[in-house]
Amino acid sequence: MKWSLGFGDPTIGGWAIVICYAFGSVLCMRASAAARVHSPPDEGRFWTGLSCALAFLAINKQLDLQILLTDIGRFVASELKIFDWRRQVQGLFLVLLTASVGVGLSLWVWRLRTAHMAVKLALGGALLVAAFLLARAALFNHASLYLRAGWDPRVIGRFLVEFAGIALISGAACWYRASLVPVARSPGA
């Protein structure tokens, strides 16, 4: 078993992404609170779901739960005597995961088609994060090929696509909340 409880990416970049995910989660929860008071229910659900997803991703960034899932899958494949077909099973899993994410995001795009523009911007950020995560999943067992070639997609993706997606979501959450919650004015202003 390769997985162990500990920090999966204890670098400055890894911790920076964890902080960004956690901060984005808090901003989305604040947008959700504003939406519950001032907006249709779907917008509040969207922000709550996005907040939970970002919180999970912050935790997963350091715990590497995908490695635990892979270890469990290898054990099950070994027990079922289908370990020789693991590449086909991994491919099928990736296709199903991609389809599920695609359908889920498409449903949210459809349901929120008339929503505030900040919600649509956050959906774009969620799409970037999802694309990054799906690319990481596709490269998970083949990363050594890229590392030997001198190109590390984890570094490039982490700071460009992953961070851009989180930044879009966080900025959209701030914009959304600011557009719904009136600014308190001091007396005499």
What is the terminal separation in angstroms? 64 Å
Q: Could you give the count of β-strands? A: 0
Tell me, rounded to a whole number, the average pLDDT: 81
Morphology call: elongated
Which spans of ≥5 residues are poorly predicted at pLDDT below 50?
Answer: 143-150
**Strand percentage, roughly?**
under 5%
**Overall number of domains:** 1
Largest sheet report = none
Describe what this molecule looks like in 3D.
The protein has about 190 residues and is mainly α. The protein has one domain (about 10-180). The protein has helices at about 10-40, 40-65, 65-80, 85-110, 115-140, 145-150, 155-180. The longest helix is centred in the C-terminal third of the chain and has 28 residues, at about 155-180.
List the helices and strands and how they pair.
Layout: H1 12-38, H2 41-63, H3 65-79, H4 86-111, H5 117-139, H6 143-148, H7 153-180
Helix pairs in contact: 1-2, 1-7, 4-5, 5-7
Features:
single chain, 189 residues, mainly alpha, 7 helices
Can you give me a brief rundown of this structure?
The protein has 189 residues and is mostly helical.
